[in-house]
Amino acid sequence: xxxxxxxxxxxxxxxxLKQAVQLxxxxxxxxxxxxxxxxxxxxxxxxxxxxxxxxIRQVDDKHHLTLLxxxxxxxxxxxxxDNRQYxxLKQATPGPYxxxxxxxxxxxxxxxxxxxxxxxxxxxxxxxxxxxxxxHNGPLLATTLIPxxxxxxxxxxxxxxxxxEHDLAGVIDAGACPLEATTVVDLTPMGSGGxxxxxxxxxxxxxxxxx
Length: 211
Description:
- The chain is of the alpha/beta class.
- It has helices spanning about 15-25, 45-55, 70-80, 85-90, 125-135, 155-165; strands at about 5, 30, 40-45, 65-70, 80, 95-105, 120, 140-145, 170-175, 185, 195-200.
- It has one domain (about 5-210): DHBP synthase.
- The chain contains six helices and eleven strands.
- The longest helix is centred in the first third of the chain and has 12 residues, at about 15-25.
- The termini are far apart.
């Protein structure tokens, strides 16, 4: 049975989030709200937890996982970012965007895309999630919570708990969040003078990125 943490969306209770962080440190996978839909998260350095996260989503190692970061400086330590890329990132963070970038040496090789050595990164605009990241004191490995065989992400905490209570260590309920995945943009072509490439149009506005 997964633990259920009901927190205030704007001023989440640190006591409850600290309990959620303890679950992450023990290898648990959590369902957390974001500024797009709910996401599954786990500790970045826990291979067994990452494997469990992939099993819940039923995706293989070719599926891009994302690092949720607290801010741009943390993002830049896990990706190779040039000046053009940084300016675009600054325009769109925090927000409902996932950016594909070349992974730095800080990213465990097993987490980056096996053929491209890239990683998805994002800085969410959600108070409860940012507070969780702050208490965790580092990024979390994440993927959008889309049930196997379905195309739409989930956004209701009670529904998530009922459907995944035997797979998740905990669910954080900060109220309903949007029912739309992030906009995904590949920034790696910019590293060789190219333009960013839209991978998936989602909640994030393309006009913010100049696309």
